[in-house]
Amino acid sequence: MRSDRLRRRHATTRVFRLLCATLAWAGIVILAVLLFHVTREGIRWLDLQFLTEFPSRFPEQAGIKSALWGTVWLIILTAGFSIPVGVAAAIYLEEFSPKDRLSQLIEVNIGNLAGVPSIVYGILGLVLFVRFLALGRSVLAGSLTMTLLILPVIIIAAREALRAVPDSIRQAAFALGATRWQAVRAQVLPVALPGILTGVILALSRAIGETAPLVMIGALTYVAFVPEGPMDAFTALPIQIFNWASRPQENFHQLAAAGIMVLLVTLLLMNATAVWIRQRAERTGR
Amino acid sequence: MNTQTRSNAHISATEQAQPVLDVIDVTIRYGDKPAINKVSLSIPQHRITAIIGPSGCGKSTMLRAFNRMNDFIPNVGMEGQILYMGSDIYAREVDPVEVRRRIGMVFQKPNPFPKSIFQNVAWGPSINGFSGNLEARVEQSIRRAALWEEVSDRLHESALALSGGQQQRLCIARALAMEPDVILMDEPCSALDPVSTARIEDLMFELKERYTIVIVTHNMQQAARVSNLTAFLENGSLVEFGETDQVFTRPRNKRTEEYVTGRFG
Ligand SMILES: Nc1ncnc2c1ncn2[C@@H]1O[C@H](COP(=O)(O)OP(=O)(O)OP(=O)(O)O)[C@@H](O)[C@H]1O
Ligand SMILES: [Mg+2]
Fold first, then answer.
1. Any idea which architecture A51-285 has in CATH?
2. Does residue B1 sit within a domain?
3. Which residues of chain A have pLDDT under 50?
4. This prediction's pTM
5. B126 and chain A: CB distance < 8 Å anywhere?
6. Residue B77 main-chain phi, psi, to 5 deg
7. Atom 6 of ligand 1 has which residue's CA nearest to it?
8. Residues contacting residue A166 through CB under 8 Å, at least 6 positions apart
9. Which residues share a beta bridge with B243?
10. Does B94 touch chain A if contact means CB atoms closer than 8 Å?
11. Which of A139-148, A244-253, B159-168, B209-218 has the lowest mean pLDDT?
12. Which residues span the domain enclosing B27?
C-alpha cells in the first residue's frame, strides 16, 4: 500500500521529467532546423564580397555593407544612450527612492512600457525625434527611438539584479560609515554587474532584430553608402533582409538567408562579449 | 525601573568609568507596535556590556539604535534620547554616517564583501579619508582580530574562501580598521563552533582595553564569561541592569533569576 504510493510518486516524476525534456529538445530541434534551412539557402552567397559590397539590383554583386554598418552604428549609439540612463534609473529606483505609492506606480508603468508594441515606439520616434527635434531620418533618430524601446527592459533587468544583492552587504557597508552612494558604487554594483550586463545584452539583442520602429521612422531600404556621422541616413540588417525577402527572385531570397546568418553571427558575438565581460567581472570579484 | 538602573550604576565598581552611551527613556516602535519600551541605561567606557533576553524582546532593535542602523528600516519611530559622549546622536544636525564611523557593528551572520581579505579591511578607512599607511592599518586590524597568522599569506584571496569563524573575525577586523570607539556585536558567535566562539571571546577580552563593546547574546554562559555588565530585556522593557556577577548570582528581579537559571526563555 505504502510502497505502491511511493511507486506512483516516482512514476509522476518520470513522466514530468520526460515532458520537460521533450519540450526543451523541441525548442532546440526547431532552432536547428531553422539554422539548417537558412544556412543551406544562404551559405552560397556568404563571402567577403557579401560583407564589403553595397546592395545592388544584380544579386551577384549585392552585399550587405551598408546594413551591417548601419546596425553597428545603431547598436553603439543605442547602447551609449540606454545603458547609462537605464542603469541610473534602476539604481535610483532600487537604492535611493523611498518605497512609496509613487515608486509602485512607476514600477507598474515601466512594466507596462516594456510590453508596448514596438511600432508604437516607432510612431513616437517619428513625431518626437524625426519631426519635432528635426533629427530627420538619421541614425541618431533611430537609436534614440531604439533607446526608448529598450529602456524599460534594461531598467527592469537592472533592478532585478540589484534586488538580488543580499541586504547584508549593504548593511555591512553602512555600518562602516559608508554613504548610500559609496555603498552602492563600491559594494552593491559590482555584485549586481553580471546580472545587469545580461539584461543589457538581451535588450540590445532585441534592438538589433527590430524592424518595425525603424521602418516607421523612415530608415531607408536601399542605401549605397555607410553612415559617417550620427546625422546620416541609414539602413539596418533586418530592414535589408526584409527588403530582399520580399522580392520575387529566388536569388534575393538566398541573399536574405545570408543576411540572416550575418545577423545571427552579430548577435552571437555580442552575447559572447557579454559572457566574457561577466566572467572577468566575476573573477575580479572573488 | 529608571531609579533602579541609576542606583545600579551608582553602586557598581564601574562608576568611575565614564558612560559612552546614555540611553534615556527610549521607546522604539515598528509601526505602532513598541519593540523597546521606555528603556534607560548607561554603557560605560572600556567595558563589555551584554544584552540578554528571550527571542523577540528587542535586543537587536536596541543595539541597532546605538549606531542608527534602524534608520534603514521603514516605519521605525523612536522617542527618547541616546547620547554618545554626551551628545544626542538623533539630533537633527547629526549625520548618521558620522555616528556609524565611531560606532562600529558586527552582525550575527558573517557578511564579508565578496572581495579580497585585504579589500574587506581596507575599504572602511579608504572611504573615510584615511591618509596614513593603509597596509599597516589593515595588518594591525587583522592582528587585533587574531586572524593574522591564518591569512597573512593570502591577503589578496577572496574573503569568501575563509571558514565561518575566520569570516566573523575578518568582520571584526573590518570594524576595527575604522578605529571606532564602540563596537556593537549582535550574536556574533551564533553561527560558529565552540573553538571559534572561544577565540572570539578571548578577542573581546583584549579589545576591551581599547574599545567599548556591547554584545547581544543568547548564550548565558557567554554573557557570564565575557561581560562586565548585563542588561536583561523582556518584552521591550529593561528588567534588570547591573554588574554581570550580581545579575547572575544575586539577581534583584524574580524574572531575571528565572531567565538566567534557564527556567524560561
Ligand atoms: N523590521 C521589523 N519590522 C517590524 N517589526 C520588527 C522588525 N524587526 C523586529 N521587529 C519586531 O520587534 C520585536 C523585537 O525584535 P528584535 O529583532 O529586536 O528582537 P531580538 O531580541 O533581537 O530577538 P532575537 O533574539 O530573536 O534576535 C519583535 O517583536 C519583532 O517582531
Ligand atoms: Mg536579534
1. Orthogonal Bundle (1.10)
2. no
3. 286
4. 0.84
5. no
6. -120, 145
7. B30
8. B111
9. B229
10. no
11. A244-253
12. 8-260
